[in-house]
Design goal:
By secondary structure, the protein is mostly helical. The protein has 15 helices and two strands. It starts with a helix and ends with a helix.
């Protein structure tokens, strides 16, 4: 088991080293696609750290992402603060927001938690828009830096590698074991002495931390930030679909799901821009009916059948 775990980690390290060379050979459109894909890898892996073992479906990604991007833009545009200073602040702000949300809502379960997290992102988006329109007199903020998509890609790669390493460590800790018990049966987890509320809040904080960090990193890519752009609820659904497509039960599941989905998503946005919602619905139905455990789960089933035949 230990040997297999370190083999998995070695494979990820090799893939990360290979991914670091992508901006050296890709540019223009394909580099932009790679930046988008790396963003989804970081967000979906962070999402899987919490939702994978606990089976709590969170749609709050857009809230954390938007908070990071908007806070960084506010600091740079209105207060002339340097990029790296704001980038150091935004993830902790996301962590604080996640802690507050977790303490208030992680006693909920099932559809109630899903609805609350979705409503949270919408509430923050509308609140920011209302403040801008009524008190600030502007609808957006400018983020002007010297960082190109190549730099953004490398920053996102570093975040994605950090998220995976943290998830790898957590999965092999007592906290990870507790979360898997909670996902199996939360009542049983309480009876065996696990503090379920604390365990869930700790992992949910990591989701907020990395979600806000990714949002801050992506801010220079847009140059102009406005609430409807960074607080888009579509982002939350995309992250969930990518994680489920790859297999949220495995930490490296999003790595498998992000490549085909990102390419298909770019094609749909380019050639069928009015059918993006339909496409998301079709993909979700395919996952539910044909890939309930994701591509990773399907591959594991196929390998198990091969072993049995042997």
């Amino acid at each position: 088991m230990i040997r297999g775990s370190f083999t998995e980690l070695l494979i990820i390290a090799v893939l990360a080293a290979f991914a670091a060379t992508v901006p050296l050979v890709a540019n223009g459109y394909w580099l932009s696609v790679c930046v988008t894909g790396m963003m989804y890898i970081a967000l979906a892996t962070s999402w899987s750290m919490f939702s994978g073992p606990t089976h709590y479906i969170s749609l709050a990604t857009a809230a954390f992402f938007g908070l990071g991007g908007y806070l960084l833009a506010t600091g740079m545009s209105d207060y002339q603060q340097p990029f790296w200073l704001m980038l150091a602040i935004v993830p902790f702000t996301g962590a604080v927001l996640a802690a507050l949300i977790g303490l208030a809502t992680l006693r909920l379960s099932g559809v109630y938690f899903v609805i609350f997290t979705l409503g949270l992102a919408e509430m923050i988006r509308n609140l920011v828009s209302w403040i801008q329109n009524n008190f600030l007199g502007s609808r957006g903020l400018y983020v002007l830096t010297d960082y190109t998509e190549r730099h953004i890609y490398w920053m996102l790669l570093a975040v994605a590698a950090t998220v995976y390493m943290l998830g790898w460590l957590i999965n092999r800790s007592r906290l990870g074991f507790s979360l898997r018990i909670i996902g199996g049966d939360e009542t049983v987890a309480r009876h065996v002495g696990i503090n379920t509320a604390t365990a869930k809040v700790i992992l949910f904080i990591t989701t907020g931390f990395f979600g806000a960090l990714v949002g801050g990193i992506l801010a220079p890519r847009y140059s102009y930030i406005e609430p409807n752009q960074v607080f888009s609820p579509q982002l939350s659904f995309l992250v969930v679909i990518i994680a489920l497509l790859g297999g949220s039960g495995r930490l490296w599941g999003p790595l498998v799901g992000v490549i085909p989905f990102t390419i298909l998503w770019e094609l749909v946005q380019t050639y069928f821009p009015n059918q993006t919602t339909l496409f998301l619905g079709v993909v979700f139905l395919v996952i539910v009916y044909f890939l309930p455990h994701g591509v990773v789960g399907r591959l594991e089933q196929a390998l198990e059948q091969v072993r049995k035949r042997r």
